[in-house]
Write a structure and sequence with these properties.
The chain is α+β, with helices and mostly antiparallel strands. The chain folds into two domains: 115 residues, 2-Layer Sandwich (D-amino Acid Aminotransferase, Chain A, domain 1); 150 residues, D-amino Acid Aminotransferase, subunit A, domain 2 (D-amino Acid Aminotransferase, Chain A, domain 2, Alpha-Beta Barrel), CATH 3.20.10.10. The chain is 27% helix and 30% strand. It contains seven helices and 16 strands. A hairpin with a 2-residue loop joins strand 10 and strand 11. The mean pLDDT is 96.
């Protein structure tokens, strides 16, 4: 069952071909993890969505409160028998039909879809995980590049490149040739006691898990968090590299070109992340 503007529809329901998310990428989405009926990091997701809608000049409905959207997500989970299971939730907000590049309205609709997943919390990913740079196209840093919009052509083409080259993921560069993020998450680099991640001004996604990890790292006395641009040359000098998103949590990188990495810091941070979730 899919939730369209509060109405539960079966699998035979379709969006119009005039849908602006389909026609122009005029849509935003949040990918959210639910565990046992608990929506993880919901407040962060909600406020990111609201801020993104303002940037996209979408009109925020009066009923789009945190409580309303949370109840609609829970209703959708219940309708799909996932209220007590773990699930991937996709909440998409698109501008309503009408107009060409210039919309005829700024009113919006929402769609909530859910899928079952296996993992209740986050587990360290010990399997071999190789990455390389994707250099065919570059991220152009701007406020729009930090949003989760339906304009994901770069990520799609980059993912095809990774598959064709037997890679698990690729790291993206911005137009200044700085490492910005991975295809499906933010990137962190560990060197000694310093943990470094690119600033949002470099063009990377304002990730919810990125925010969680930054807050956790700031509480760990033995590590210093630095938000600075990362040069590709720094990658081979790092002790660890890991990628973060809300579905996996922390994904350690095993290999970049000829360099192999440890995952000790990633394991430590993942333990702290799971403790934070259980206490929330």
């Amino acid at each position: 069952m899919t939730n369209f503007n509060g109405t539960l529809l079966d699998g035979n329901a379709f969006l119009s071909i005039k849908n602006r998310g389909y026609a122009y990428g005029d849509a935003l989405f949040e990918t959210i993890k639910s565990s046992g009926g608990k929506i993880l990091f919901w407040e962060d997701h909600y406020f990111r969505l609201m801020a993104s809608m303002r940037i996209m000049r979408m009109e925020i409905p009066m009923n789009f409160t945190m409580e309303f959207l949370e109840s609609e997500i829970l209703k959708t989970l219940e309708a799909n028998n996932l209220a007590k299971e773990s699930a991937r939730v996709k909440l998409m907000v698109h501008r309503n039909e009408g107009g060409l590049y210039t919309p005829s309205t700024n009113h919006v609709s929402f769609v909530i879809s859910v899928n079952s997943i296996q993992e209740n919390f986050y587990a360290i990913q010990d399997e071999f995980y190789e990455v390389d740079l994707f250099k065919d196209y570059y991220v152009s840093p701007s406020l729009l590049s930090t949003l989760k919009t339906n304009n994901k052509a770069l990520n799609v083409v980059g993912s095809i490149y990774a598959k064709e080259n037997s890679l698990n993921n690729c790291l993206l560069l911005n137009t200044n040739k700085q490492v910005v993020e991975a295809l499906n998450g933010n990137v962190f680099l560990v060197k000694g006691n310093t943990i470094k991640t690119p600033p949002l001004s470099d063009g990377g996604l304002k990730g919810v898990m990125r925010t969680q990890l930054i807050n956790i790292i700031k509480t760990v006395a033995e590590y210093e968090l630095v938000e600075e641009s990362i040069s590709p040359f720094e990658l081979q000098k790092a002790d660890e590299i890991f990628i973060t998103n809300v579905m996996v949590g922390i994904q350690p990188v095993s290999k970049y070109r000829k360099k192999s990495y440890t995952n000790d810091v990633a394991k430590t941070l993942l333990q702290k992340l799971n403790v934070k979730i259980r206490l929330a």
